[in-house]
Amino acid sequence: MAIVAKARAVFSPEGPFQPTVIERRDLQPHDVLIEIQYAGICHSDIHTARGEWGPVRYPLVPGHEIAGIVTQVGSAVTKFAVGDRVGVGCMVDSCRECEPCRKGEEQYCSEMVGTYAAIDRYGQYTQGGYSTHIVVHEDFVLRIPDSIALDVAAPLLCAGITTYSPLRHWQAGPGKKVAVVGLGGLGHMAVKFAHAMGAEVTVLSQTLKKKEDGLRLGADHYYATSDPETFAKLAGHFDLIINTVSAPIDINAYLSLLALDGTLVNVGAPAEPLAVNVFSLIPQRRSFAGSMIGGIRETQEMLDFSAEHGIVPEIEVISADQIDEAWERVLASDVRYRFVIDIRTMKTE
Q1: Cβ pair 255, 280 in contact under 8 A
Q2: What is the Cα–Cα distance from 136 to 264, expressed in whole angstroms?
């Protein structure tokens, strides 16, 4: 008998969210049933649901920052037991055989299955974490350390790993000058991680209105990009720039801030193309790169690193009835710094 979950879904690109019921698959031998307690709201949810990244099948239940409790396990599950505190991020399966999968970089598998808006190996359309329950193969479930509360754990599964992964890959650490463009849901996590890794951290934001927050979160410096002097003063300064902004910016201006062999990594994903002048790259052997989330192994490493260093996102918890309002506030950059839905509010309605 199929597992029934309450959910909130959009039925068109315009929304709004409506209560609905979805079916989860019966547990296969390696599956884990998770009772979701919290789900973070990611800008990706909005882009996807509104069709900005391509056609979408409706109704759609977004959400890939999931934290909850294991309530049932399949007959062959060895990694988890009933009662475990767990999380699910942006993917729920991959081919397991290609080179990225063998390297533990499942996020780059061409057959990676997204937590929502994808077709899984059973031919089902995946639905995400704005729901009370989810069934996931144990290989794509993360263990949440006891010292991290479930509400703040949820955004680590996307915002956390999306910023942690490029910082690790490009070796942020002592002696490295790292800039973070934008102090939002992704940016504030990038600042915390880069600081904990020992890098010298600078925030580049449109204005100085969040300067106090940026310095409190671990930034050493904070500059307003609306001030033309900023780009003159910081020219050729950074080893690594993490761009977290999901809107078009003048990439060439930011590339000019890179030192010799510096790299600008895009983790924000605007719907519009970004124009790059090749002469922004050639003179200092600069690189313009992109990065997704991390693999399962690296995501668990990130969770353990967060527990060790006391790193958690700053959140605002909302009820299921407030999702539409929260989305509008995300688009207006009116959140410090991540919305998290208390999924338990779906159960009492």
Answers
A1: yes
A2: 34
Which segments of the chain are extended strands (E)? Answer: 3-10, 17-24, 31-40, 66-73, 85-88, 91-93, 113-114, 133-137, 142-143, 177-181, 200-205, 221-224, 238-243, 258-266, 287-290, 315-318, 338-342
Helix (H) or strand (E) holding 334: none
Q: Taking the alpha carbons of 15, 16, 22, 27 in that order, is the dihedral positive or negative?
A: positive
Which pLDDT tens digits describe the chain residue by residue (349 residues)? Answer: 579 999 999 999 988 999 999 999 999 999 999 999 999 999 899 999 999 888 999 999 999 999 999 999 999 999 999 999 999 999 999 999 999 999 999 999 999 999 999 999 999 999 999 999 999 999 999 999 999 999 999 999 999 999 999 999 999 999 999 999 999 999 999 999 999 999 999 999 999 999 999 999 999 999 999 998 999 999 999 999 999 998 889 999 999 999 999 999 999 888 788 899 999 999 999 999 999 999 999 999 999 999 999 999 999 999 999 999 999 999 888 998 999 999 999 965 4
The DSSP bridge partners found for residue 205 are 224
Helix (H) or strand (E) holding 244: none
**HSE-up of 178 (CA within 13 Å, CB side)?**
33
